[in-house]
Design goal:
The chain is α+β, with helices and mostly antiparallel strands. Helix content is about 25%, strand content about 40%.
């Protein structure tokens, strides 16, 4: 009987610990708030820039994730070439997160947080 109680306690504590720990899927968002408006997965680069303004940083990255990142000046948003992803970074400053928005084929594909702002 004591073994059953012990096993139940261990399973309960394990389940609570597992449920409370954030997994990698929680690091991604589906909506990004810009002031009083939001942008979401599937929105165009034009729409995102219209609502959120120019990004703090922009870079083109090959889809394979290999080297050859082409960093651009602050606020520059050029057209990505085929086979490239466009990553826009929004640094909202001290106390807020840095958000990285990834575009493929001119559409927002991923919204991630990347540490705290400066």
């Amino acid at each position: 009987m004591l073994r059953l109680v012990f096993a139940a306690v261990v399973l309960t504590v394990s389940a609570l610990g597992f449920a409370a720990s954030p997994g990698p899927a929680l690091a991604e968002d589906t909506v990004f708030r810009c002031g009083g408006e939001t942008v979401s997965i599937g929105d165009s680069r034009y729409t995102v820039q219209k609502i959120c303004g120019k990004p703090s940083r922009s870079e083109s990255v090959s889809k394979s994730g290999k080297d050859r990142k082409q960093k651009q000046a602050k606020g520059a948003a050029s057209s990505p070439s085929p086979g490239k992803l466009q990553k826009w970074t929004y640094d909202r400053g001290y106390g807020d997160y840095v958000y990285v928005l990834t575009f493929a084929n001119d559409r927002l594909k991923r919204i991630e947080t990347s540490g705290r702002g400066r």
